[in-house]
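I'll show a sample.
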Amino acid sequence: MKKGFTLIELLIAVTLLSVMMLFLYQSYASLNDSNSFYQKEVTHLEQEHLIKKIIFLDFSLAVNPSIAILNQDKNEDAVLMQSAHSLHKMYNPYITYIIKNAKLYRLESLKRLTYPLRRDSEFSVDYIGEVDGFRTYTSSREMENTLLVHVNFKNANDVLLKIKSLQN
């Protein structure tokens, strides 16, 4: 008498293996979907954190009397200042925040910029994002050297920072 598997036993084993492989593939596909979703969320949070960090360092390290806030309309300010913070390896650069076509830009220059900008101005430009508004408010006398910065992004969370100047 020979010992071995019958054809029915082999068909049942192959069917069970196929069903298990199908469930494993579905689990793998849903894991890839969730990984891509969370990767997008982490990237978005990192970008938001970077923007907050840049704005905070610019304003907190600003040479205090140099901050000029130019009100353009009810939702837009242009801010000109000198700061000890630099993204482009400049020493005490002049930084300007402006909105152009609903986009917030950060300009960094070695020379004081004027607003509106002149054609011969030299600066490095950083795009911050699409915004509905950018406002900067100065503090009252009790909270000297404190600013409130509000950036209203179009497709992201608003940024609202209360910043005390570290430069005295």
User: Anything to note?
Assistant: The helical segments are 7-60. The radius of gyration is 28 Å. The longest helix spans residues 7-60.
